[in-house]
């Protein structure tokens, strides 16, 4: 039986990733020093049991062998935030969209700032690919894990960066 919340930390090419599960289902994937990262004490007890499949799929992603994830996830947040996070999962690997395009896709063409705020509060980075959203001019704007990590993930997905 799972604790309500538990977590483990895995190494990745973009630094340590804290994986959080709620009732055994992935509910968080946080980078160190990530903006909007909850306090560590909210992650629950250390317990690697719920995470082998998550770790396997992340390892495959970083090895270049996986372009999408097939995992049960639990997304908290408001209905609007969840709609944004769900739409993020529809952005194909290696492609980007603007905040405005995402707002239009959601039927809220004037809500690009709200989309940006929801994007920044995405609790399951990498797997819910908020790094694939860019500014209207093509600039890399606001990424909770830091612009350097956003550039790293986009370069990796475009093939401009090969990990060994």
TrEMBL record:
Residues 7-74 form the Methylguanine DNA methyltransferase ribonuclease-like domain. It catalyses: a 6-O-methyl-2'-deoxyguanosine in DNA + L-cysteinyl-[protein] = S-methyl-L-cysteinyl-[protein] + a 2'-deoxyguanosine in DNA; a 4-O-methyl-thymidine in DNA + L-cysteinyl-[protein] = a thymidine in DNA + S-methyl-L-cysteinyl-[protein]. GO terms for molecular function: methylated-DNA-[protein]-cysteine S-methyltransferase activity. Its main location: cytoplasm. GO terms for biological process: methylation. Gene3D superfamilies: Methylated DNA-protein cysteine methyltransferase domain, Winged helix-like DNA-binding domain superfamily/Winged helix DNA-binding domain. Its EC number is 2.1.1.63. Residues 79-158 form the Methylated-DNA-[protein]-cysteine S-methyltransferase DNA binding domain. The active site is at 130 (nucleophile). Keywords: Cytoplasm, DNA damage, DNA repair, Methyltransferase, Transferase. InterPro entries: MethylDNA_cys_MeTrfase_AS (IPR001497), MethylDNA_cys_MeTrfase_DNA-bd (IPR014048), MethylDNA_cys_MeTrfase_DNAb (IPR036217), MethylG_MeTrfase_N (IPR008332), MGMT (IPR023546), MGMT_N_sf (IPR036631), WH-like_DNA-bd_sf (IPR036388). It is found in: Cytoplasm. Belongs to the MGMT family. This enzyme catalyzes only one turnover and therefore is not strictly catalytic. According to one definition, an enzyme is a biocatalyst that acts repeatedly and over many reaction cycles. Involved in the cellular defense against the biological effects of O6-methylguanine (O6-MeG) and O4-methylthymine (O4-MeT) in DNA. Repairs the methylated nucleobase in DNA by stoichiometrically transferring the methyl group to a cysteine residue in the enzyme. This is a suicide reaction: the enzyme is irreversibly inactivated. This is Methylated-DNA--protein-cysteine methyltransferase.
């Amino acid at each position: 039986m799972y604790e309500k919340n538990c977590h483990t930390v895995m190494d990745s090419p973009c630094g340590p990733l804290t994986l959080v599960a709620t009732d055994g289902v992935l509910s968080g994937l946080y980078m160190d020093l990530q903006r909007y990262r909850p306090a560590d004490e909210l992650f629950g007890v250390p317990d690697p049991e719920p995470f082998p499949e998550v770790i396997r799929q992340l390892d495959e992603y970083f090895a270049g062998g996986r372009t999408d994830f097939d995992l049960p996830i639990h997304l908290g947040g408001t209905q609007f935030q969840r709609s944004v996070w769900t739409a993020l999962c529809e952005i194909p690997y290696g492609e980007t969209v603007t905040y405005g395009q995402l707002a239009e896709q959601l039927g809220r063409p004037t809500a690009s700032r709200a989309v940006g705020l929801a994007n920044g509060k995405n609790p399951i980075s990498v797997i819910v690919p908020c790094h694939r959203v860019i500014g209207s001019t093509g600039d890399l704007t606001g990424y909770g894990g830091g612009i350097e990590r956003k550039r790293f993930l986009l370069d990796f997905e475009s093939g401009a960066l090969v990990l060994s």
